[in-house]
Amino acid sequence: MLVEWVKHTLIRCPPALKQAGVLYDLIALESRARRLRRVWQPHHETCRRLIEGWAAQTPGRDCAVVLGSGLLLEIPLDALAQRFRRVVLVDLFHMPSVQRAVRRFPGVELCACDLTGVLDGLADAAESGHLPEPQAVFPEAATADLVISANCLSQLSLRPAVVAWHGGALLPDQIRHWERALVGAHLAALQALPGVVGLICDTARIGTDDRSGAVQERYDLLHGVSLPPWAAEPEQWAWRVAPAPEDHRQISYHHTMTGGLVRR
Ligand SMILES: C[S@@+](CC[C@H](N)C(=O)[O-])C[C@H]1O[C@@H](n2cnc3c(N)ncnc32)[C@H](O)[C@@H]1O
Predict the structure, then answer these.
(1) pLDDT digits (tens, 9 = 90+) for 194-207
(2) What is the architecture of the domain spanning 2-190?
(3) Which atom belonging to ligand 1 lies closest to the Cα atom of 70?
């Protein structure tokens, strides 16, 4: 915890993002990825293999855009940088480790952007009981050869929902409905892109009791939104995201994952 606190204090990040908990989330992801490196390895390998396959199938070689590039854990950056003249990595914030990692790739660009378009000014809007219309802001994607939504779909509404809730003027149902709209807007915008589009996302979080093997908890991570039709049969797997005792003494959590091409 101390290391995380020091990082949170020292890393230079726009104050609004720090306040919204975005830096906290990325630091927590970094720590957890380190702790669970071996357990997460198969998930990371599956994501990288899928993305490499999509890149190899993409006819154009000018530009690839990765939405929710995060810590590059799931992204085969070498392969993308070799294949495409430009690779644009989009996330709310790029951690120092990512800024260092991309330095050796002249064609790789970092783009800090809110993919939902709602975070800016949200705290004030929510205080007055207003929720901004969900958008899908996809920098460079309209002309990209390949766009990958990289396991960010279920995360898109998390921090906006917290900020909206703290505003104190909205009902839980209003916020839930709006979360659905945020997820839906992302999926609709992916489908409307002209290039090849790959989607990797988690759809459910399942908690299983280690002693009895019984499922104890199940959450729909997409708030009831259905995934779009696939251009080819997607792949499905389980990401062992928090084996006990990571989040609970005896309950292990996994996320059900889907990865496939939405457009080809
Ligand atoms: C599960 S992580 C994905 C990890 C990443 N694909 C990797 O390889 O490390 C989800 C990512 O989505 C990003 N994210 C969440 N909401 C976002 C938003 N509104 N705009 C841009 N990125 C967002 C988070 O910052 C985080 O990096």
Answers:
(1) 999 999 999 999 99
(2) 3-Layer(aba) Sandwich (3.40)
(3) 27
